[in-house]
Design goal:
Elements lengths: L1 E10 L2 E8 L8 E6 L5 H13 L24 E8 L2 E8 L2 E5 L2 E5 L2 E6 L2 E4 L1 H12 L3 H7 L1 E2 L4 H6 L2 H11 L3 H33 L14 H54 L3 H64 L4 H16 L1 H51 L3 H78 L27 H49 L15 H77 L7 H70 L5 H6 L4 H32 L7 H63 L9 H24 L4 E6 L12 E6 L4 E4 L5 H22 L7 E5 L7 H16 L3 E5 L3 H6 L3 E5 L6 E5 L1
Parallel strand pairs: 3-15, 3-16, 10-14, 14-15
Antiparallel strand pairs: 1-2, 1-4, 4-5, 5-8, 6-7, 8-9, 11-12, 12-13, 16-17
Length: about 1050
């Protein structure tokens, strides 16, 4: 982070608006903030801290004290800070909670914050705080420890524990991924422990499921021993099942044999019950009844003769009744005919009148025929008029059709009058679209090549990163080796020291604790080999960089080519219809749409050309239509003339027709058919009167004849009935004699036994079937008694008791068999499951142990209490200590060195980032808390500068381009102050912007660039002096 400009208003001791432009110090890069005590020097750093984090630099100042006591009610307290980070500029503005005047009233304004990032403004305290954390990668407390060393907090930087240092360094060196590895190992180890516990629980659950069968203690036996026990148990149950099988077969066969006897007992009882159900008495009565019925058949013929005579007599009597009815009918009819004959005597006058009318009608025959001819002629003429009307209508319709077609063609021609221009436009659009399509295909092809180049670039980048990491690792290895070599030099020098001779480092003549050799394996030869290896890696790195640059050039060239094609296609797409994708996006959908559009335009062009050809054809059709319309109008005029002539002829004929019609009105005759009908009706009526008289005479004669015929029939039938009565009497006497002979008392007894032949046959068959059934049941009973005689049990009850015993025993065997099978199956399932679990455990155990061990090592569950991430941070920390020691030796004239504490002093917490101070004068190691205030400032400055150097070397997640130091120089003597200034000048040469707050006069004299804070009774102000 590099400050650019700081603006404050009504902030701390500053009443008005004060601005510091840090760009003025970019040349010297070292500046001093000076002023009287309490003037507001530290408030400048507080303003920067407040702008960035909403907090101040020191731990003793509260936020609610930031508003200036010198400010008026109208002045708004705010801080505006412009800074640069990783070549990107930011402007952040904050204001604390304060009262302001609005419309004459004092209202509370909440704290505000906003940051400008490029053209984007982020507002809100929470959002701005998150953005600052994302930009800088550190929070307020970490900022104070690595960028701003606040007044009175130097010792905190040196004495920070491992946990605080870890929270700072992990973001600086981006080691969170190592913590992710730790967490992953922890999760995997926990997961495998749970799985292992699950195996144990599953085995216990399986063994619990067979407690009722076999109690097996999992604690006392191994899994293999448990499996052996289960296998033996399965074998025991298998043998038990084999022993049960013959018993089960015996009981089944016995039950089957005795069931047959039991069925025979049941059948015998059923047959005897059936036999006892027979009603022998009823069957005998039925037999006697049927014998009587047989005798009725001997008498039935005589009865039938008697009945036939009676039926014949009844028929004759009915015929006589009909003859009497017909005889009376004809007598009555004769009386009616005689009356009608008297009435016909009055027909003579009417017959004469009818004859006169017939003569008059015959004289009108010519008039009727002429009238009909005129009517036909009028009809013909009217029909001709209708035909002329039809012709006129037909011509009108033809003319309308021609007219409509003419208008249609004319409308079509007007509608497509611009068709030739449209064809030209379509051809132009089609040509342009073809160009777009060709451009898109080129674009697609170039884009695929570009993507392949990007893949090669990524591979090259990956290779570069691997070589760069290797180069960094080897460089760090060289740095550590050089550190060891440097320490070994102290050992080599110490070996040459003798008592009384001064040490070239500290000047002491007493040497109680001489320096020892750190690692004898590190020598000039090993350093030379390591440097040569680094040179080879560097060469490979440079070659990879060259390849990377060439590939980037190819990618850039391809990007330019793609942009060129894209711009060309974009220009051709004048309507912005197709090019909706951005540069370097695939355009398969667009190509498809362009192809569809080309196809659509081609179809449209073909349609337009068809329309143009059709217009040429329609022009010829218009000429033909005009000729036909002219011809139709001439025909229409001629028809009009013919129509008028025929109407005149019809009028003349109707005058003649009316005269003839008036003569025929006397007899209501209007046509020849009416005439003929009237004449015919008159003749027919005359004939009917004459015939009626003749018919009546004839009917009277016929009626007299019928009366004579029926009277004769009546006499004959009476004689026949007398003869039948004699025969009926004789037949009855014979029938009664036959009844007595066959044992019937009278006719009633005879009718009691008289049934139909079919009923007699059915009842006879029933008696015979019952007799056969009775015989069969007797035979079946004999056979069943014979079968049962071979059974040892003489009664059904004894057999039933024996069967129950057999079934009970079979049920016991089957239940025992089911129990043994279930137990065997359960044991086999448990055996298979435990065997499978045992295999899983065997495959799983080594991996679980290894994961647990890795988890313990990675997460600091070891005797050193150092996690994987903290171990990596320890490597960086060693480099920081090494670099800080260079500064500390210079600051303390070679007296003090930092040492990395590797021994864990507190086994309850993780360590690894602790330091101590080694005093070369006393050759004793001291805790950092035991050094003086001036020494703690020197140590803090050395650590801060060392941390800055290491961060710049590794380009980590945090960039330290600026260092602020608030006081501390007053605790140094003149030599120490001179050494501190030299260290700051060296740091200044390394392109760091360093700001110092101090009232020490030597610093005022030495540092030319100054910010002077001038205090007064009306508030402080800022003056910049270059």
């Amino acid at each position: 982070m590099i400050p650019i400009k700081l603006t404050v208003q009504a902030f701390g001791p500053y009443k008005g608006k004060e601005t510091i432009d840090f760009r003025k110090f970019f040349d010297n890069r070292l500046f001093l903030i000076t002023g009287n005590t309490g003037s507001g020097k530290t408030m400048i750093f507080d303003a920067i801290c407040y702008a960035l984090f909403g907090d101040v630099s020191g731990q003793y100042r509260e936020i609610d004290t930031l508003r200036s006591q010198f400010a008026s009610r109208e002045d708004i307290t705010y801080v505006k800070f412009e800074f640069s980070h990783r070549n990107k500029d930011y402007i952040i503005t904050r204001s604390p909670e304060q009262f302001k005047i609005s419309r004459g009233k004092e209202i509370l304004q909440r704290a505000k914050a906003e940051i400008l990032i490029g053209n984007e403004v982020v507002s809100g305290i929470k959002n701005v705080n998150q953005e600052i954390k994302n930009i800088l990668g550190i929070d307020h407390s970490q900022f104070k420890q690595i960028v701003m060393i606040a007044q009175g907090e130097f010792r905190d930087l040196v004495s920070a524990d491992s946990r605080n240092r870890e929270s700072i360094y992990r973001k600086i060196f981006n080691t969170m991924e190592f913590e992710n590895i730790q967490n992953t190992l922890k999760e995997r180890a926990s997961e495998y422990e749970k799985k292992f516990d699950n195996f144990d629980q599953r085995i216990r659950g399986l063994l619990d499921s067979i407690n009722s069968i076999k109690l097996i203690s999992y604690e006392d036996l191994t899994i293999n021993q448990v499996l052996d026990v289960l296998s033996k148990e399965v074998e025991i149950y298998d043998n038990k099942l084999k022993e049960l099988k013959p018993k089960k077969e015996y009981y089944k066969n016995e039950i089957l044999r005795n069931n047959n006897f039991f069925d025979s007992f049941n059948s015998l009882i059923a047959r005897k019950n059936e036999l006892s159900s027979f009603d022998i008495s009823s069957l005998k009565d039925e037999g006697n009844f049927l014998d009587k019925v047989k005798k009725t058949f001997l008498i039935r013929d005589k009865e039938k003769v008697l009945e036939n005579f009676k039926d014949t007599r009844d028929g004759y009597e009915k015929e006589i009744e009909k003859i009497i009815f017909d005889l009376n009918f004809h007598k009555n009819n004769l009386d009616v005919l005689n009356k009608e004959f008297e009435e016909t005597k009055s027909y003579d006058i009417e017959i004469e009148n009818l004859k006169s009318k017939i003569i008059d009608l015959e004289s009108l025959k010519n008039t009727v025929e002429e009238k009909q001819k005129h009517e036909f002629k009028i009809k013909d003429l009217e029909k001709e008029l209708l035909d002329l009307d039809d012709n006129k209508e037909s011509i009108k319709k033809e003319l309308e059709i021609f007219d409509r077609r003419y208008n249609q063609i004319l409308s079509f021609s007007i509608e497509h009058k611009d068709i030739k221009e449209k064809i030209l436009y379509i051809e132009s659009d089609l040509l342009n679209l073809e160009g777009i399509k060709e451009g898109l295909l080129k674009y697609e092809s170039e884009l695929k090549i570009y993507e392949k180049l990007n893949i090669e670039c990524e591979k090259c980048e990956s290779k570069y990163n691997k070589i760069f990491d290797l180069y960094g690792n080897k460089t760090r290895e060289l740095s550590l080796s050089e550190d060891i070599y440097f320490r070994n030099q102290a050992g080599f020098l110490a070996n040459k020291l003798e008592d009384g001779c001064p040490c070239i480092v500290c000047g002491s003549t007493i040497h109680p604790n001489k320096a020892n050799l750190v690692d004898v394996s590190v020598n000039e030869e090993s350093l030379k080999e390591l440097r040569n290896e680094i040179l080879m890696i560097k060469k490979e790195l440079e070659e990879t960089v060259t390849l990377k640059i060439n590939l980037n050039k190819d990618v850039k060239s391809k990007e330019d080519r793609i942009r060129e094609i894209y711009e060309d296609v974009l220009k051709k797409d004048k309507t912005d219809e197709f090019i909706s994708f951005k540069e370097f996006e695939l355009c398969e959908d667009t190509i498809s749409r362009v192809k569809l559009k080309v196809l659509s335009l081609r179809n449209s062009l073909n349609n337009s050309r068809d329309i143009n050809n059709k217009l040429v054809e329609l022009q010829e059709e218009i000429t033909n239509i005009e000729s036909k319309i002219k011809e139709g109008k001439l025909n229409f005029d001629q028809i009009e003339k013919d129509y008028i002539q025929k109407q005149s002829n019809i009028s003349a004929l109707k005058i003649i027709l009316n005269d003839k019609t008036s003569r025929l009105l006397k007899y209501n005759i209007s046509s020849i058919n009416d005439y003929l009908d009237t004449l015919e009706q008159t003749n027919n009526y005359l004939k009917s009167l004459i015939n009626k008289r003749e018919v009546i005479n004839s009917n009277i004669t016929k009626c007299n004849n019928e009366i004579l015929k029926f009277q004769s029939k009546f006499d004959i039938k009476n004689r026949d009935i007398e003869d039948l009565n004699f025969r009926i009497k004789t037949s009855y006497e014979i029938f009664m004699e036959s009844l007595k002979e066959n044992g019937f008392k009278d006719i009633d007894e005879y009718k009691k036994f008289k049934i139909s032949e079919s009923e007699f046959n059915e009842r006879t068959k029933f008696i015979e079937d019952k007799r056969e059934e009775f015989r069969n049941i007797n035979l079946k009973i004999i056979q069943l008694e014979k079968d049962i005689s071979s059974s040892p049990y003489k009664t059904k009850e004894e057999l039933s008791t024996h069967l129950k015993d057999l079934n009970d025993k079979l049920k016991e065997v089957e239940e025992l068999e089911i129990k043994y099978c279930q137990n065997k199956s359960l044991l086999e399932n448990v055996y298979g499951s435990i065997l499978s679990i045992n295999k899983d455990i065997s495959n799983f155990e080594n991996l679980r142990i290894n994961l647990n061990e890795l988890n313990k090592i990675a997460n600091g569950i070891n005797k050193y209490k150092i996690s994987f991430e903290r171990y990596i941070l320890g490597i960086y920390f060693k480099e920081i200590i090494y670099t800080a020691n260079i500064r500390l030796l210079k600051l303390t004239n070679g007296r003090f060195l930092f040492r990395h504490l590797k021994e864990n002093t507190d086994m309850r917490s993780q360590q690894g980032l602790e330091i101590s101070v080694f005093d070369n004068r006393t050759s004793q190691e001291r805790k950092v808390n035991a050094i003086s205030g001036g020494e703690s400032f020197q140590a803090s400055l050395a650590l801060a500068l060392g941390l800055s150097d290491v961060i710049q070397r590794y380009s980590g997640g945090v960039s330290i381009d600026t260092l602020f130091i608030d006081e501390g120089f007053g605790s140094l003597d003149s030599d120490s102050l001179q050494n501190a200034l030299e260290c700051l000048i060296e740091a200044n040469d390394e392109s760091k912007l360093i700001g110092i707050i101090s009232h020490v006069q030597e610093l005022k004299d030495f540092i030319r660039s100054k910010i002077e804070v001038i205090d007064s009774s009306n508030g402080s102000r800022i003056k910049t002096d270059l």
